[in-house]
Write a structure and sequence with these properties.
The chain is an alpha+beta fold and 390 residues long. It folds into 2 domains: 87 residues, 2-Layer Sandwich (Phosphorylase Kinase, domain 1), CATH 3.30.200; 243 residues, Orthogonal Bundle (Transferase(Phosphotransferase), domain 1), CATH 1.10.510.10. The strands form 4 sheets. The chain has a 6-stranded antiparallel β-sheet, with helices on one face. It has a 3-stranded antiparallel β-sheet with strand order 7-8-9. It has a two-stranded antiparallel sheet with strand order 10-13. A hairpin with a 2-residue loop joins strand 5 and strand 6. Helix 3 runs antiparallel to helix 5 and helix 3 packs antiparallel against helix 8. The longest helix has 19 residues. The N and C termini lie far apart (50 Å).
């Protein structure tokens, strides 16, 4: 897209679109030639007049700006331009873990175990910070992410791990609250208590992170079923095999993952920090010493199209990041129709009516999966009524 002015920002390229918002790579211009590349997240025009959506959007910004952690993408600004609410946040130059897993799958490989453990540890630290964050008066924020998935974990070309999209997060002081029996998040990454529409606490995020771990280790989808109803029922029952049945996984690491995936929250780790410590103990045992530099090398090897080789006289080959001018970014999918939100809200409520329900047009995890790494992190907003237990 052509560069265009949006308040204090210049919108350079639309990089993401979901059911509630679109995200642009943008440039913030300031005095004396100051410039900064940021990500601008803007409510889609066709739902911009919804008071509920605006409230949720403002809630996200107010919540995320209070989370100051190196593994959480930082929010800088909340504003409105010509009736469009927007959030300006840290631009992470990289890819989601989902896109990375897909790239490895294309090559018939799995993400290396040491990289998996390192990424999981960083995500666990981000969640621990969010779970125990306090406001300026020292009051607990009571944050639960509720949408932990490979789509919402980014790995930058600099080797940084960032958790994004707290738009569905539950917090004690949010203006918008979720009705009982309504779930928010991607179906295939729900915890059993979410899938039952029951009250949740921070351990729900640990189950979702356990699903991420399972998929990163096996290269397969943990709760992929024929349709959404079967996915929800499988999660409720905790129908998941040990990862070692699908790929070589050390028993010690498998025990950590399966504890995170316990159906009973009391059988899981109590905090994300405890999960991090268990992973660290395994990393020490296995001799893993992967850090930011190694993750950077992993990204360079995984997405070589972003790099070129240059040979300096008398020096080793140096990888220089570039964006090949001959490679155009694939076009984003078209914006959803205005009825999409209503259909998504009602979709699961209809599933219980027939055991023979066919899969919908949307993937089982509520995301678009293609080479552009477009995710629909908001397409379950404002919530999905779950089928009754029974």
């Amino acid at each position: 897209m052509e560069e265009r002015t949006f308040g204090r920002y210049e919108l350079l390229e639309r990089i993401d679109v979901g059911g509630m918002a679109e995200v642009f790579r943008a440039k913030l211009r300031g005095a004396a030639g100051f410039e900064r590349i940021v990500a601008v997240k803007r409510i889609l025009p066709y739902i911009a007049e919804s008071a509920e959506v605006r409230t949720m959007f403002v809630d996200e910004a107010k919540l995320a700006v209070q989370l100051n952690h190196p593994n959480i993408a930082q929010v800088f600004d909340l504003g409105e331009v010509d009736g469009h609410y927007f959030i300006a946040m840290e631009f992470v130059d990289g890819h989601s873990v989902r896109a990375i897993l897909e790239r490895f799958a294309e090559r018939g490989r799995r993400l290396p175990e040491d990289a998996t453990c390192t990424i999981l540890c960083e995500v666990a630290e981000a969640l621990h910070h969010a779970h125990f964050a306090e406001d300026s008066l020292g009051r607990p924020l009571g944050v639960i992410h509720r949408d932990v998935s490979p789509h919402n974990v980014l790995l930058s070309y600099a080797g940084e791990v960032k958790v994004i999209d707290f738009g569905l997060a539950k917090a004690a002081n949010r203006a918008s609250q979720t009705k009982a029996g309504v779930v928010k998040g991607k179906l295939a990454y729900l915890s059993p208590e979410q899938a039952h529409g029951r009250p949740i606490d921070r351990r729900s995020d640990l189950f979702s992170l356990g699903i991420c771990a399972w998929e990163m280790l096996t290269g397969e989808r943990a709760f992929r079923r024929d349709n959404d109803r079967e996915t929800v029922l499988a999660i409720r029952a905790g129908e998941i095999e040990p990862p070692s049945r699908h790929a070589p996984v050390d028993p010690a690491l498998e025990r950590v993952v399966m504890r995170a995936l316990a159906v009973d929250p009391d059988a899981r780790f109590g905090t994300a920090r405890e999960l991090r410590e268990a992973l660290d103990a395994y990393r020490e045992q296995a001799g893993h010493r992967l850090g930011k530099r190694e993750l950077q090398a992993l990204m360079r090897a995984t997405f070589p199209e972003r790099f070129a080789e240059e040979v300096a006289p008398g020096a080793a080959i140096e990888l220089i990041k570039r964006k090949p001018p001959s490679v155009e970014r694939p076009a984003l999918p078209p914006l959803p129709a205005e009825s999409t939100q209503i259909e998504l809200v009602e979709e699961l409520a209809e599933l219980e009516e027939s055991a023979a329900t066919q899969p919908g047009a949307r993937p089982d995890d509520g995301s678009w999966s293609d080479a552009t790494d477009v995710k629909r992190a908001d397409d379950t907003v404002p919530g999905i009524d779950l089928p009754d237990d029974g």
